[in-house]
Amino acid sequence: MLKIAWSPKYCHPLPKGHRFPMEKYNLLPEQLLYEGTVKEANFFNPEVLADKWILNTHEPTYFSKLKTLSLSKSEIRKTGFPLSEELVEREIHIMHGSVQAAIFALEFGVAMNIAGGTHHAFTDRGEGFCLLNDIAITANYLLENQLSKKILVIDLDVHQGNGTAEIFQQENRVFTFSMHGAANYPMHKEKSDLDIGLPDKIDDQQYLKLLDQHLKPLIDDVQPDFIIYQSGVDVLASDKLGRLGLSIQGCKERDRKVLEAAKKNQIPVMCCMGGGYSEKISQIIEAHANTYRLAQDLFF
Fold it and tell me: Which spans of this chain does the record mark as coiled coil (predicted)?
């Protein structure tokens, strides 16, 4: 069964006019249920992740400042969110959603988190709509509990996974692969194990050709026993923050290639949502929904 993390806490309200589309966290599960891709039984409600697993990745001083709402104005500004107790609680639930989804992926081959993909959070700070790094926390949880020996992070969000790269710069059991807009945020890129910088307005054909050139050799060389897939849909040509040129169909083919590679090689994969900022919310939902439709079709 396809297991999907979702919680009402994912939908914490933001000030009117904020450019982060919180409404997608309600609309996506509604769409998947309406069209029959999933049923209520596919969803699980994440709980609060124990502090020890967050502190296994993040600096204690930083996490303490988050929980006590004592970040400086500059630190808050870099996250892009107005800091609140509810927002921190939301983030901690998202962390548990990805960890639990990874455990389900070990059982079923694939599992998803409606939220997550918070790849801009560093060990000691938050950035770019990310307070804690669910990709890193999940990878470290799997390693610490001897549930995995080698993890491949496939980050295909339009923005480089800079926080994930920093966290795992000295950890050879996690291979970080980020394929992102070369001229996009963050302006200062960290060093992933493999970075592919993409030109503005790259189209479906060029993008998918590049992905083909790297994905299979990467799996063959790294030989991971677990994949974490950041499936951001801000690669769309319609995205306000993206600057690339993919169509919704091209984005779907991107997801198909990753999920088919995981299935073919019998590597469990946990997918977290990542970004999506198109003007029309319907385009965001359709692109995200394709990831879930493919998971159902390919694995179940």
Answer: none
